[in-house]
## 1
Amino acid sequence: MARARNIKPGLFKNEDLAECSIWARYIFAGLWTLADREGRLEDRPKRIKGELLPFDSQDVEPLLRELAHNKFLERYEVDGERFIQITKFRKHQSPHYSEKQSVIKPPPLSEKAPHIHPPNSGSSTVIKEGSQPPDSLIPDSPIPDSLEKDSGLRPVCSPSNGNGAHHFPACPVDEIIGLYHAELPMCPRITVRNSKRDKLISGRWRQVFTDGKAKAKPEGVELFREFFHFVRDSKFLTGKAQASSKDRSPFVADLEWLMSPTNFAKTVEGRYHR
C-alpha cells in the first residue's frame, strides 16, 4: 500500500543525487511512498515498475542498481528473499503513528541512528538559528494517512530497580526541541534554553519512562516525535481554529504550554482535537 510523504526543496539540490539519471531520481522519491515506516520494501523491480512507472517503458532494475551504487539505498537478501532499505530513511522521515510496524528484517549491518550530543550545562543557552536540522533530501514530516485521535502514549508496566526507584536515560532536551521545531513549524520557535523550559521537558521525559511506555532513549525520542505529530492534527493548538472574539488572534500552543503536566495530559487524551 502506498503511503503519502512530503518532498522538500533539498531533493532538487542534492549534488550526490544529481549524479544519477533523471529516471533514477524520479523513482527515488516514489520509493518512499512504497516503503514501510522503517524505509524497507520488497526488492521486486517488476512490481515497483507497475507502481511507479505504469505508463512508461523504462526498466526499473538498472535504476535500482544506480541508486544502490550511489548509496541512496541498499539491496540485500534475508532467508532467500530480496529487500530494499532506503538509506537514512528514519533519520529524516517521521512516519505517522498509525502506520504498522515493519515486518521486513533489516539489513545484516543496519545503519545506526545519529547521536546528538547534549548541550553544555548552564542556566541559559542560546540556540542559534539554523542549528536545527536543515531541509534535507528526505522530508522530516509525512502527510498523515489519517487523523486518528490517539497519541499512542499509554502506560504499561514501569521499569524500576526493585525498590521503587525508576531509571531512565538523561533527557535529550536539545533533540526534543529539534523535534518540536521540525514537526510544528507553525508554533513559536525556541531560541533560548533556560532552566524552566529544561525542567518542563525533563519532567515529561521522566513521565514516559515512569509510566513504562519507554524503556530506552530511542523509544522515548520516538514518543515525543509522535506527540508533536499528534499536536499537528489539532486546529486549536496550531492556530487554525477561529478566535473566541474578533479582537483576539487564534491561540497557538508553544513548547512550554505543551510540556506543562496538565496540558500534556489533556493533549494526549485528545481534548484539543475536537
## 2
Amino acid sequence: MNWKQKTETLQNLIGEIRERTFPYIERPKTKINWSLYDAAQCREVADVVTEIGIFVDFANDEVIPKPEIIKSEAGRPSIPPDDIAKTLLVQSYLGHANRPAEGLAYLFSERLNLKTNFSYKTIERGYDRRSVNEILNVVFTITNKCVSGLEKIFSVDGSGTPTSIKQNYARDREMQRKKRSKEENDAFPHSAFTSKHDYVYKEAMIGVKYKLIAGWVSTTDHTIGETTLFPRVFGQSINNHPDMEKILGDGIFGARWICQLVGQNGVIPRFLPRRNVRFKAKGVREWAEMLLSLFINPQEWLEEYHLRSNSEAVFSMLDRGNPHPLRKRLDRRRETEDYLRAIVHNIKRLCYLRYLDNEISKRLSKILS
C-alpha cells in the first residue's frame, strides 16, 4: 500500500468515526460503590464548606509574599483576604448573590474559621482584589496536588458560561458551525450569534480518571478562539501535572503546531484529525506518529480518544451545579466568578473521592495536615 492509498484509507476511517459508523467496541462501565456515594452525597454540604475553610487556610500560609493587613485610622477597616476567599467559594458553591452571601459568612463563620465580620460590599469588592485571587490560585494548585502522579491522561475542551438566562452555549455553537459550514471552527460563538457580553468563554484541561480540572483560562475577549488559549491552559496543566502522559481533544486542536508543543513536553497528542488530513509531517514528528497510530490500530486509539467525553461531562456537572447565569457586571469580576466555579468543582470532587478512593483520602489527609 503506497502513501496515497494510506491517506485515502485514513480519510475514510476518520469519516466513519465522525459519522459514528465505525464498529467501535465500547469499554465496560466503571463500577461505583453506591453505598459510599450515597454517604458522600448526604454529607456533601457539610464536607464542602469544611474543606473550603481548610484549603484556604492552607493556601493562605503558602502565599509568598503573604498579604499584609494594614491598619489605618481612616477609611474602611482592612479585611483578611483569606476570609473573603472562603466566603466567595461558599457563595459560589451555594449559588447566592452578595447580600445573602453576607448571611452565609455569618452562618458558617465557625466552620470556616472566619476571623472578622464584613458586609456584602466587601464581598463584592473581593472579586477583583489581587490578594484574594492569589489565594484562589494556590487553592486551585493544591486541589491538583491531591491527584498528581495518579492522573496521567487529560482532555482539553472549551465552553462558555452565560451572563444571561436567554443564552445557551451549545445551541449558539451549533448555529455557528451550521452557518459557517465548516467542520471545525476555532473562534468562540459571537457577533451574529450572541450579543457582545453574553458569555465568559473558558478553556479547561480535565483529568479523565478523577475529573478534576487541571488547567483553566477564562476570558471575555470575543476575538480569540480555543487554539489561542491552548498554550496557557496547557502550561498551567503541565505545571500541576509534570508527569502527564497523554492529552485528548477534538478536531479544533488537531493542528501541527499544537502537536509539536505537546510533544516537546513529553506528552502524546490524541486529537481527532479532519476528514481531509494528510500524512505530511512538515517537520512535526508528533503529527505523523499520531496519524500512524490511528491508521495502524484505530480501536486502541479510539479507546483513549473517547475518554475526552469526560471533559464534556465535567462541563455538564458545572452547568447542573450552577444553573443560574453569572451575576457580575464587570469583566474582571465575571472571570473570577467563573473561576470560582472551577475551584469549587475540584473541592467538591475531592470530598466525594475521600469516600470513594482510599488513596485520595490518604493524600488529602497528608497534604492538608
